[in-house]
Amino acid sequence: MISLYTTPPIWGLPSISPACMKLETWFRIANISYETLVLTANDIELAPKGKMPFIKYQGKIIGDSTLIIEMLKEKEGIDLDKNLTSTERAISLAFRRMLKENTYWGMGYIRYNVEANWQIYQEVLASMLFGDTPKAEWEPIVAEFGNSTRAQIYTQGMGRHTNEEICQIITADFQALSDFLAEKPFFMGEEPTTLDATAYAFIGNTIKLPLVHPIIDNVRQMDNLCQHYERMTQRFYRDRLVPVQ
After folding, report:
1. Are strands 34-38 and 2-6 parallel, antiparallel or unpaired?
2. Residue 78 CB-half CA count within 13 A
3. Positions of E strands within the chain
4. Lesser CB count within 10 Å: N end or C end of the chain?
5. Can you tell me the mean pLDDT for 142-161?
6. Is the pLDDT of residue 243 over 50?
C-alpha cells in the first residue's frame, strides 16, 4: 500500500494543490491502491524536496509528483500513455510542462498576490496546517509563508507582469488546452492519460475556487474544459461526491 501525503480536499476539490490532485488522479486512473495522509505542519519536515505531494513506497519517502509517476511506471509497469504515438507523447509532455512551469505560477498569483483572495486563502492554509491553533499564533507564520511565495512568483518572472498581462498569459494557456481538447472526451481520445490527470487538477483548481479574478471567469466560460472536469470527477471521484438532497 502506497501512502500519499497530500493536501486536504476543500471547495469540492480532491486537493487545493494541483500537483497533489494530479498525482492522486493518476493513481485512480491507474487503479493503484493507496492511502491518503493529509498534510500537517509537521509533515513538511518529512518532504524530501520540501513540498507536497510525496509518497512512502516500499519503505522509502519519494517526492515530486512527476518523478513519482515515472518511478511507478518503471517499478509497477503502469503506463497510462502506452497507446500514444511518439507525436502524441510529445504533445502531452509539452502541455504538462506548460501547466507545471507556467500556468502554475499564474494560479499562485491569483491566490497570493490579489489581496482580497489572499485574505480568504490564508485562512485555508492556516486551517490546513495549524488546525484550531489561535490566529495570533499562526498569523505571523502564514504571513511569512505568503511573503516567501510572492517572492518566488516574482523571481520566477510571473510576478513581474501586470495583472492584465498575467491574465492574457494564463488565459492563453487554458485556451490552448480547450482548443486541443475540442470535442474529444479526453485529451488524447477515448480514454484518459497522464495529460488528463494533470489538466483535471489545474482546471479544477481554477474553476472551483471561491476567489475572484478574470482568469477564473475566462476559464469558466470554456465549456469543454468545464465538461472535462465534471466527466473526470464522475468517473474517478464518485466516492467523494456529495449526494444532492
Report:
1. parallel
2. 17
3. 2-6, 34-38, 54-57, 60-63
4. C
5. 96
6. no
